Amino acid sequence: MDGALKKGVGLLVILFLGFWLVQDPNGFADSAKSTGSTIWDLLTKLFDSSISFIKSLSN
C-alpha cells in the first residue's frame, strides 16, 4: 500500500502542476524563476560554507 500511496501523491502533484501551467503560465513561470533563484542562492551558501570549513581545517 505504501508504494501506491507514493505513486498517487506523485500523480496528484504532477496533475496540479500541469493544471497550474495551463491556467496561469505567467504565474507558474514567475514562481519557477523565484524558486530556482532561491535554490541557487542556498547552494551557493552551502558551497561557500563548505569551502570555508575545509580551509579552516587545513590551517
What key phrases describe this protein's structure?
59 residues; 2 helices; 95% helix; mainly alpha; single chain
By DSSP (H or I, 4+ residues per run), the number of helices equals 2
Backbone CA Rg: 19 Å
Estimate what percentage of residues fall within beta strands: under 5%
Q: Report the helical percentage.
A: over 70%
What structural class do the secondary elements suggest?
A: mainly alpha
* Major beta sheet summary: none
Shape: flat
Q: Which regions have little confidence, pLDDT < 50, spanning 5+ residues? A: none
Write down the overall mean pLDDT.
93
Notes on the structure:
This protein has a domain at 25-59. It is flat, with a radius of gyration of 19 Å. The chain has 59 residues and is mainly α. Helix content is 95%, strand content 0%. It has two helices and no strands.
How would you summarize this macromolecular structure in one to three sentences?
With 59 residues, the protein is an all-alpha fold. It is built from 2 helices and no strands.
